[in-house]
Structure of Histidine phosphatase family protein:
Amino acid sequence: MNLYLVRHGQSVANDRGIIQGHKDFPLSELGQNQARLLGEFLESQSFDYIYSSHLTRAHETAKAISAHQPLDVIKWERICEINLGPLEGKTRQEIYLQYPELKAESKSILTTGIVGTETVEEITDRCHQVLEELLSGHKRHNVILVSHGGFISIFLMYLMYGHKWHQAHRPFVIGNTGVSRIEFLDDGKPIFHYINSDAHLLLANMQRESELF
């Protein structure tokens, strides 16, 4: 299986510096252009399936890709963003004012342990289930998953470090419409071809950085 992990284009919340999690926001005008460019860039490649998070920003991005492929988008709730509970809908500044320990301890927004957020155990279980479903159903397929910065980052770390992903340093960032390609061998072992490729934005001289989550 060749798996292409795609982060959604810039959302309205990304543009405003708002942490989203499960809160639903559409793409911004810039995000729509980023998604369109990615769809055009991938047009020459052949895919078998396009899956998308059920959240609007991811689904709109997936639709921009499918516009250049003879495929429908399949919504898959399991690949949605990390549930950030009481942190959602706030800027980082607002979060740090309410939870100063997060900034003092340099804690990741994704794994704070705050009541109401998705736990490390829950995230790990979700990554495991996604991987198992992909490997069992798509062994010979080229598959696109359009998801979110937080989930993609953690899923990649899970593929690299297994259940100890949260103890390891993350050596990459995932930008809006960044593409990561992983090839899975017959025994399920992953080969990382590239992470966060944004050649489609570079060619168009378009904005390439954004807030995560």
Observations:
- Strands lie at 2-7, 49-52, 73-75, 142-147, 179-184, 190-197.
